[in-house]
Design a protein that fits this description.
Elements: E1 6-10, H1 15-26, E2 30-35, E3 45-47, H2 53-59, E4 63-68, H3 78-100, E5 104-110, H4 115-119, H5 136-155, E6 158-164, H6 171-179, H7 181-185, H8 190-202, E7 208-213, H9 226-232, H10 244-247
Parallel strand pairs: 1-2, 1-4, 2-3, 4-5, 5-6, 6-7
């Protein structure tokens, strides 16, 4: 897909968001950020809350594409965190995409959507396997994927839902990856995250797709990366612990 307009990245100040912004800027795309705090290194950056429809619609004005990363990034209180950020926020961003005339939206989902078959060692998990969400966070991601297809079919948007691997955000996460072979196998480095979303921006002729995105597994393939390769041309470059120098950058514990 040839992109000459603005690409809106929500959650642009987060761990993955900063990596995505950096990669898109390296490829000389016009990038606008949206987050609760200032996005480092990005001049066109809107400060706002994803649950605020007015702020979201203003940020989406004139954009060609939206990469939606903003969310509460794991299980939290449903009514005060997951509902406004991961349900209402998805509604706001999809409506903003529709009304702004954006051509494509990329929705961040999670490997936790297929948690229980992976825990049962039914590997590799494939994108067409039935969802088995870990808990409310993952259930909200199932909702996002489902309504994403609804917008693709009803409104003609190009929609890509990506079930992201484990991109560590804090010291506890790093300890988990260090001590766990499965975490190393679903690790997603910031560099590979940036390259993945750039591939999602550039891929032609995608109506609706669900794909997994991780770095290269170190021990065993848990999540099937072939759809991302075939549909988007994404080939991960890193294997744990490659890329940790970028991931070790400090980030506050907050909604992305």
């Amino acid at each position: 897909m040839h992109v000459c307009g603005i690409i809106l990245v929500t959650g642009s100040a987060g761990r993955i968001g900063q990596a995505v912004v950096a990669e898109l800027q390296r490829r000389r795309y016009r990038v606008r950020g949206f987050d609760r705090v200032k996005t480092p290194g990005l001049e066109d950056a809107v400060i706002g809350d994803i649950a605020d429809a007015k702020a979201v619609h203003q940020a989406a004005t004139g954009v060609e594409m939206i990469l939606h990363l903003a969310a509460t990034p794991d299980d939290a209180d449903f009514m005060t965190e997951l509902l406004p950020n991961n349900i209402v926020g998805v509604y706001n961003i999809l409506e903003a995409a529709r009304l702004s005339g954006a051509r494509r939206i990329v929705l961040s989902s999670s490997g936790q959507v297929n948690w229980w078959q992976r825990m049962a060692q039914h590997w590799p998990v494939r994108v067409d396997d039935p969802p088995s969400p870990r808990y409310w966070y993952a259930a909200a991601k199932v909702f996002a994927e489902s309504i994403g297809r609804g917008y693709a079919e009803t409104h003609g948007l190009s929609v890509i839902a990506v079930r992201l691997g484990f991109c560590p955000r804090n010291k506890a996460h790093f300890q988990e990856v260090i001590s766990s072979e499965w975490a190393q196998d679903v690790y997603l480095s910031p560099g590979d995250a940036g390259r993945f979303f750039a591939c999602a921006v550039e891929a032609p002729d995608v109506h609706f797709a669900i794909v997994f995105a991780t770095s290269k597994p170190k021990h065993c393939v848990h999540l099937d990366l072939e759809p991302a390769r075939q549909v988007l041309g994404f080939e991960p470059k890193d294997t744990w612990p490659e890329g940790i120098e970028m991931a070790l950058m400090s980030e506050p514990e907050r909604a992305l």
